[in-house]
Amino acid sequence: MTGQALLDTAPDPVLAERERLLDLAALDVLGRGPEERFDRITRMAQQLFGVSAAAVTLVTDAVQVHKSQAGPMLLSDGRREHAFCDVTIRRPELLVVEDATKDERFADNPSVIGAPGIRFYAGHPMTGPGGHRVGALCLVDDRPRHFGAEERALLAELAGWVQRELDRSTELESAARVQAALLPLGAPDVAGYEVTGMCLPSGSVGGDFFDWHPAPDGQLVLTLADVMGKGLPAAIVTAMVRAVMRSTARDAGPAEAVREAAATLHEDLERTGRLVTMCHAKLDAAGHRVRFADAGHGLMLLVRADGSFARPAAGGLPLGVLADEEWPEGVVDLAPGDTVVAFSDGLLDLFDGTTDSLPEIAAAIWDCVDAAHVVDRFTVLARRVGIRSDDVTLVAIRRTP
Q1: What residue ranges of the chain have pLDDT lower than 50?
Q2: Dist CA 44 CA 256 (whole Å)
Q3: Is the CATH number 3.60.40.10 carried by domain 186-399?
Q4: Dmax over Cα atoms in the chain, in whole Å?
Q5: Which region, left, alpha or beta, applies to residue 307 given φ > 0 means left and ψ of -120 to 50 means alpha?
Q6: What are the distances in angstroms from CA 80 to CA 53, 120, 121, 207?
Q7: CA contacts within 13 A on the Cβ side of 105
Q8: What residues does each domain of the chain span?
Q9: How many other CB atoms sit within 10 Å of the CB of residue 98?
Q10: What is the CATH code of the structural domain delimited by 3-177?
């Protein structure tokens, strides 16, 4: 190959760095603060090797960020050009510096000649989903030390644990996109009514969902469900429950549909140890009423146009408790300007966490100009106070004045 051909095939460093930063962003771990899944690995590494500090670092375009660190030596985030880990990510193999004062690459480094006085460093590179090196699991000590083959192998093994957690972040991000795609797109067109919904998971993915679709009789079928648990396991069960609810008899009443779904799901829920609370309803726009079946959910409010509110009676047990449970069917009649809202208990956490906050929630709903405003109001509130320990999901049906 000629010299010119070699130049033509040489990688573009600007493009490579852009792709590396996209890989880092795809992990979605920057800006999330400490996470126990990384902290337990750095604690273990620091104890196993007896070093001053162990850390998981991420290298951005300008700085090195310590995602997790353990040990008595405090490592501060700093400029990338001074970071040992910036050298680590430029090569695929483990970087070991047994005495930084004798290594021309680091002897004049501010962290060597000044605080924290680094002498020893060992770093194993970490990659993003596209294979670009984005950070490192590193060991730091304030005295020189030898780092033999067994120690190198052990650090590589621990780095593999960190890498699996980073890979899991990518999987969760992909799962979050899939889960979001399963939510309804846009509002249904129902004459005389506004229907909206929201679902904000507490993590990347959640155990709540809402759904709606037209029934053959012209009515609108709506479901709001909360699967016990969090994260990917709950999200998998959520997808299963949604599919089953979609496949129940399309012309069945809410109670019949819940009974059919409960029988179908019972064995799977029992094996996975999951329970599902649910509000399943049908909007009869012509009759101006909502028929519903409540399976252990109990969080529905009818907010009337005059500001008064009522809490429709709750129903039977959650799905997954008994295979042959019966659920009663309730009816909510809607006058012009009335709004009926079903929501998950994560909404209560935006207030005091108990049903004592229902009057405050009802007042917030009544103050909204339309159903979309209800969703916007609680979305803004969730972002302001932070989603604490549970997903926040809501469906609002408003009869237009």
Answers
A1: 1, 5-7
A2: 53
A3: yes
A4: 85
A5: left
A6: 19, 19, 16, 39
A7: 13
A8: 3-177, 186-399
A9: 15
A10: 3.30.450.40
Gyration radius (Cα) of the chain, Å: 28
Q: How far is CA 81 from CA 51, 89, 104, 105, in A?
A: 24, 12, 15, 11
Using alpha carbons only, give the angle 93, 94, 96 rounded to the nearest 5 degrees. Answer: 140
Query: What does pTM read for this prediction?
Result: 0.64
Enter the tokens of residue 347: 């909404």
Q: Which helix (H) or strand (E) holds 343?
A: strand 339-343
Across the chain, mean pLDDT equals 89
Confidence at residue 6, expressed as pLDDT on a 0 to 100 scale: 46
**Is residue 65 within 8 Å of 126, Cβ to Cβ?**
no
Collapsing DSSP states into helix, strand and coil, what is residue 378? Answer: helix
The residue count of the chain comes to: 401
Encoding tokens for residue 128? 């993003």
pLDDT at site 1: 47
* Token pair recorded at residue 248: 């129940």
pLDDT of residue 166: 87
Q: Residue 92 carries which DSSP code?
A: S
Question: Can you list the alpha helix ranges (DSSP code H) found in 322-370?
Answer: 358-366
H helix intervals, 102-212: 110-113, 149-181
Check: CB of residue 87 under 8 Å from CB of residue 105: yes
pLDDT of residue 7: 47
